[in-house]
Amino acid sequence: MRATVKTPGNSRAPRRFALARPQAASSKAYRNLKSCGVSNAHLARCKKSGSDLKIVKRSLRRLIVTLSPAQARGEMFRSGRLRAGPVVIRCAIGAGRVERDKREGDHATPAGEFRLLFGFYRADRISRNATLLPIRPIRPRDGWCDDPDSSAYNRPVRLPCKASHEKLWRDDRLYDVMIVLDYNIRPRRKTRGSAIFLHCARPDLAPTEGCVALRPDDLRRLLPRLSRKTALTVR
Q1: CB 194 within 8 A of CB 1
Q2: SS3 state of residue 223
Q3: Rounded Cα gap, residues 76 and 9, in angstroms
Q4: How confident is the model at residue 21 (pLDDT cuts 50, 70, 90)?
């Protein structure tokens, strides 16, 4: 979902950070991605960039997101907590709530268990090193359809696009790194929500419009241990 309205922040330029070093990709995993509606062009770009789909021994199998029990002193928003093994990280969620019966535009984060599918990153801002997920650079014409009446609903699209959509090429750095979650992908149901990602959060962890967001440094440290066998559970 689209992130919230931009809030004032630090005027200094954020630090660049690196992703993980690419390795060989699995053709079977790419076929699985194709069955979820990912275009041949996207898969070709992932293969060309050398994205790794193999699982290492230290990869995480499960991430668990829950709503913080109470709003911390000095916080403007009620945030969430993401548990990655023994580590607990503060995160932003949709408008401070989790919803089992999610609908398009309700600003809620959907409850359930979702696989990590593939991702995008801003090559003009981030140095490419390594990640266990198929990931490719975002381009200015990349978008994501959020129009329930479109055949491209909850799918990546190339801009310009007549259907309602959001741009993935953003100025606010929220999509400098973003991972697509397996929510309402296959099967795909109209009005049940679209564009549910794991992406970078604002400095104050302001609510998203349904995504899960981590501070850039936290997401950078987590990326090398994520794979397509990692499941993100929202409770």
Answers
A1: yes
A2: helix
A3: 14
A4: very low
| H-type alpha helices, the chain | 27-35, 40-49, 216-222
Burial readout 131-159 (b: 16 or more C-beta within 10 A, e: otherwise) = bbbbbbebeeebbbbbbbebebbbbbbee
- Quote the tokens at residue 49: 């960039």
pLDDT 10s digits, 154-197: 999 999 999 999 999 999 999 999 999 999 999 999 999 999 99
Give the start-to-end residue ranges of the domains of the chain.
Answer: 27-234
Q: Return the residue matching tokens 């099967």.
A: 187
- d(CA 36, CA 50) in angstroms, rounded, equals 20
pLDDT at 39 > cutoff 80: no
SS3 46: helix
Query: What number of residues does the chain have?
Result: 235
Q: What is the mean pLDDT of residues 89-110?
A: 93
Cβ-contact 46, 34 below 8 angstroms: no
Give the CA diameter of the chain.
49
Question: Which candidate, 125, 94, 124, 93, places its Cα nearest to that of 108?
Answer: 94
Sign of CA dihedral 158, 226, 14, 136: negative
